[in-house]
């Protein structure tokens, strides 16, 4: 596994980023020196001398960057990123069963089963016998799960603005579109 030092998300003013080797204007309009390659770009250059993008490397580093502030700003030792998806989708699809939830999320049933069990242990989710199929359980948010989802709606936007501060709103929207395409086609 490759390790790249990731600093916490910025909380102050946003600075413009430029492509490696490109001149960028300084505050007085004159060309400022080109930005040095990032540690990630240097690792990529070693792994792909032909210049083929190593997207997984950038995704890993970006994930570490975003997660470096997740616990303090969003999770508060109450919830993990995996459980956020479970809560959000059960809010959108109340009464769904575990197999259907796994299909919606796009993960194996056993993986989602573990996530649902953790959400249930934390008091966010309840399982009721399905009225359509006595062999399965319908999943619902509890009042605690609904309260957590409401808290997340307050905590996530400022965190996202902070971690995305080096990008414009349009760049963040474009990144979201590209990542969605990467994952879902």
Report on this model:
With 185 residues, this protein is mainly α. The chain has 2 domains: 39-68, no CATH class; 78-185, Arc Repressor Mutant, subunit A (Orthogonal Bundle). It is 53% helix and 8% strand. The chain is built from 8 helices and 4 strands. The protein has helices at residues 39-47, 55-67, 70-75, 81-92, 98-105, 109-121, 143-163, 169-184, and strands at residues 24-25, 31-32, 125-129, 137-141. Strand 1 (24-25) and strand 2 (31-32) form a beta hairpin. The longest helix is centred in the C-terminal third of the chain and has 21 residues, at 143-163. Residues 1-5 and 7-24 have low confidence and may be disordered.
The helix content is: 40-55%
Note the overall shape: elongated
Pattern of helices and strands:
EEHHHHHHEEHH
**Amino- and carboxy-terminal Cα gap:** 27 Å
The largest sheet, given as strand count, sense and whether it forms a barrel, is: 2 strands, antiparallel
Query: What's the number of structural domains?
Result: 2
CATH class of the largest domain: Mainly Alpha
Summing up helix and strand content along with how strands pair, one would put the structural category as mainly alpha
Radius of gyration: 21 Å
Question: Beta-sheet strand percentage?
Answer: 5-15%
- Tell me the CATH superfamily of the largest domain: Winged helix-like DNA-binding domain superfamily/Winged helix DNA-binding domain
Short note summarizing the structure:
Helix content is 53%, strand content 8%. With 185 residues, it is mainly alpha-helical. It folds into 2 domains: 39-68, no CATH class; 78-185, Winged helix-like DNA-binding domain superfamily/Winged helix DNA-binding domain (Arc Repressor Mutant, subunit A).
């Amino acid at each position: 596994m490759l390790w790249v030092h990731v600093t916490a998300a910025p909380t102050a003013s946003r600075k413009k980023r430029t492509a490696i080797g490109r001149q960028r204007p300084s505050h007085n309009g004159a060309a400022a020196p080109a930005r040095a390659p990032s540690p990630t770009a240097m690792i990529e250059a070693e792994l792909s001398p032909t210049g083929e993008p190593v997207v997984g490397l950038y995704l890993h580093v970006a994930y570490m960057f975003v997660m470096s502030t997740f616990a303090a700003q969003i999770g508060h030792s109450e919830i993990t990123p995996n459980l956020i998806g479970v809560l959000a989708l059960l809010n959108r699809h109340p009464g769904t069963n575990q197999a259907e939830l796994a299909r919606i999320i796009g993960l194996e049933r056993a993986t989602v089963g573990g996530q649902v069990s953790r959400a249930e242990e934390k008091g966010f989710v309840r399982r009721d016998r399905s009225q359509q199929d006595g062999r399965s359980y319908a999943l619902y948010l509890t009042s605690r799960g609904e309260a957590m989802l409401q808290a997340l709606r307050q905590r996530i936007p400022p965190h996202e603005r902070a971690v995305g501060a080096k990008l414009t709103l349009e760049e963040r929207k474009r990144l979201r579109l590209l990542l969605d395409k990467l994952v879902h086609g």
